UniProtKB/TrEMBL annotation, chain A:
It is found in: Cell membrane. This is NADH-quinone oxidoreductase subunit C. Gene3D superfamilies: NADH:ubiquinone oxidoreductase, 30kDa subunit. One of its GO terms (molecular function) is quinone binding. InterPro entries: NADH_DH_suC (IPR010218), NADH_quin_OxRdtase_su_C/D-like (IPR037232), NADH_UbQ_OxRdtase_30kDa_su (IPR001268). NDH-1 is composed of 14 different subunits. Subunits NuoB, C, D, E, F, and G constitute the peripheral sector of the complex.
Automatic annotation (TrEMBL), chain B:
HAMAP family: NDH1_NuoD. NCBIfam families: NuoD (TIGR01962), PRK06075.1 (NF004739). This is NADH-quinone oxidoreductase subunit D. SUPFAM superfamilies: HydB/Nqo4-like.
Length: 188, 420
């Protein structure tokens, strides 16, 4: 079993390497830069083989719509979405990170956007992916990011009458008034 | 003859009375705004197999709309993970999909290994594959047998639960725990398979297929079962993809996406197995896909066990892998590493990594951002249940209450994973 498989996979990889239509990270990036201009993406890197780029919230909807619809890209699957909070980055405190997957070509892509915490509004993706609905509700619930255009932006995991967004960094895990326990090892 | 005549006569009278009653009710029934019933399905309902609520608007037996409420057992795992060293996060993953905890544990270990750049020896990878496939079998067994219970067949459930019990005994032999396993370590397994474990596994592999065949013959072509599940809750491939379905639910709709094949991890590329797919994504297809996956998992386990390579069962990564306890008493380095690992004083490199494994329900992803500290800066779990459960409210519209129960259990929604 092992030997025959090995041969076929070697043959396959040889074909893939010479195939000009094979979608690679580099091709995704050049296509995107052709469509939206070089300056649309910053901090382009490939940590552990996953193409990562940062863009702006003004363009994110347009970019993901193109990624979804463009026949050569076909990023038809929104794997996951999550919020992040960097309190030290003045004016860019909050962020949303999207993981997209082109199931046809088996290429993954990570897109990030950052924006100020005083104006946490981001366009919704629910018109492109139905699955964005609960992901955005979760991100809103934990980070207080407002997804404009979302049909039903209410809390999902926490109780309705909670008056803060618990995944933000200013909310410590344990009760800050506790004095019986000093946390020297894991304190940040 | 006389008895039959009377019976027929009674039937006729009854039918006439029913028709008359129905005719009287029709005008009000058509007026939806007047006669809708609100039904709270859950939060604690024996048929939902977990704590989540659906507020159903019903017109008689027919469901007009369903609004799900979730979060009843939300335990803030992502927040807790921000304050825990990596090895202390493994028990959190146990409690997500508790029907297949080894997959969650090992998915998390592989994520950390990817971040740290640890290569796990072949033997440990094969051992992981065996445990993960066992977990997949138990997960699917629970889902399918519970589907049987919801359609009125309790026997199959009790019957396969015996087999699940035997798998749990194998877990116990391998890691000491049964349900929330906390199995393995960052860098490999915490101990080698004992001879007893191998023996139990071989015995189970010999006995289980007969049970599985009986289970299948009880349901697969059973008229009563098929009447309840065929064409109930179908979903098209496009819609399933758009809703972010993964795992058996997506494959039942006809998309052959499986992380084990698309992005192989832990040496899955070494094994010969097939990905079963369904056609119209209804409850019956989901049932059949899960059954077939059990057979394929058995194939993988047999191959892995027969070709189990010799060698170490963990990577040589002293900074992250706990030294043997005996060495801690005698050897200074071992004591230092033991102390540092237990106290969480090991710093991880800066980086961000996304790793996904094929969980019992679909793509279970871990997105880990490390800022060079001792704990993750941010850890996000892609929980397949949470993502595909949002399609439920659309899938139940137009079905009856009994169908809604069957759809729910065939989707295999695990409350622990749903709420994190």
């Amino acid at each position: 079993m092992a030997e025959s498989n090995e041969e076929s996979t070697v043959a396959q990889t040889a074909v893939i390497e010479t195939d000009p239509n094979k979608l690679t990270n580099a091709r995704v990036l050049t296509t995107l830069q052709q469509l939206f201009g070089e300056d649309a993406f910053t901090d382009v890197e490939e940590p552990y083989g996953l193409l990562t780029a940062t863009t702006t919230r003004e363009r994110i909807h347009e970019i993901i719509q193109t990624l979804h619809g463009e026949p050569i890209l076909q990023f038809n699957f929104l794997t996951t979405m999550c919020g992040i909070h960097y309190p030290e980055n003045e004016g860019q405190e909050l962020g949303v990170i999207y993981h997209l997957h082109s199931l046809v070509h088996n290429v993954r892509l990570r897109l990030k956007i950052f924006f100020p915490i005083i104006d946490p509004a981001v366009p919704t993706l629910t018109d492109i992916y139905a699955t964005a609905n609960w992901m955005e509700r979760e991100t809103f619930d934990f980070f207080g990011i407002i997804f404009t255009g979302h049909p039903n932006l209410i809390r999902i995991l926490n109780v309705e009458d909670m008056d803060y967004h618990p995944m933000r960094r200013e909310y410590p895990l344990e009760d800050g008034t506790r004095e019986d326990k000093t946390d020297l090892f894991f304190g940040r | 003859m006389a008895v039959n005549d009377t019976l027929e006569g009674t039937h006729k009278i009854h039918q006439e009375a029913r028709e008359q009653q129905h005719n009287q009710l029709v005008p009000t029934l058509n007026d939806f705004s007047q006669e809708l019933t609100t039904l709270n399905l859950g939060p604690t309902h024996p048929a939902t197999h977990g704590i989540f609520q659906n507020i159903l608007q019903m017109d008689g037996e027919r469901i007009i709309s369903g609004v799900p409420t979730i979060g009843y057992i939300h335990r803030a795992f992502e927040k807790i993970a921000e304050r825990r060293p990596f090895y202390q996060i493994t028990p959190l993953t146990d409690r997500m999909n508790y029907c297949s905890s080894p997959i969650n544990n090992m998915g998390w270990h592989m994520t950390v290994e990817k971040l740290l750049g640890i290569t796990v020896p072949k033997r440990a990878q094969y051992m992981r594959v065996i445990m993960m496939e066992l977990a997949r079998i138990t997960d699917h067994l629970i889902c399918n047998s519970i589907l049987g219970v919801d359609t009125g067949a309790f026997t199959g459930f009790l019957y396969v639960f015996q087999e699940r019990e035997k798998v749990y005994e194998i877990y116990e032999e391998v890691c000491g725990a049964r349900l929330t396993t906390n199995m393995g370590r960052v860098g490999g397994m915490e101990r080698d398979f004992s001879p007893v474990a191998i023996e139990k596994l071989r015995k189970w592999l010999k006995e289980f297929p007969a049970v599985m065949r009986e289970f299948e013959s009880m349901f697969t072509r059973n008229r009563i079962f098929m009447d309840r599940v065929v064409n109930v809750g179908p979903i098209s491939a496009e819609k399933a993809l758009n809703y972010g379905f993964t795992g058996p639910n997506l494959r039942a709709a006809g998309v052959d996406y499986d992380v084990r094949v698309m992005n192989p991890y832990s040496s899955y590329e070494d094994f010969d197995f097939e990905i079963p797919v369904g056609t119209n994504g209804d409850t019956y297809d989901r049932f059949l896909v899960r059954n077939e996956e059990i057979w394929q998992s058995l194939r993988i386990i047999n191959q892995a066990l027969d070709n189990l390579p010799e060698g170490p069962y963990h990577a040589d990564a002293p900074h992250y892998y706990l030294p043997p306890k005996q060495a801690v008493y005698k050897n200074m380095e071992a004591l230092i590493y033991h102390f540092k690992i237990i106290m969480g004083e090991i710093e991880a490199p800066v980086g961000e990594v996304y790793h996904s494994v094929e969980g019992g329900n679909g793509e279970l992803g871990f997105y880990l951002i490390s800022d060079g500290g001792r704990t993750p800066y941010r850890l996000h779990f892609r929980r397949p249940c949470f993502i595909y459960y949002q399609a439920y409210s659309e899938m139940v519209v137009g079905t009856s209450l009994s169908d809604a129960i069957v759809i729910l259990s065939s989707m295999n929604v695990i409350a622990g994973e749903l709420d994190a």
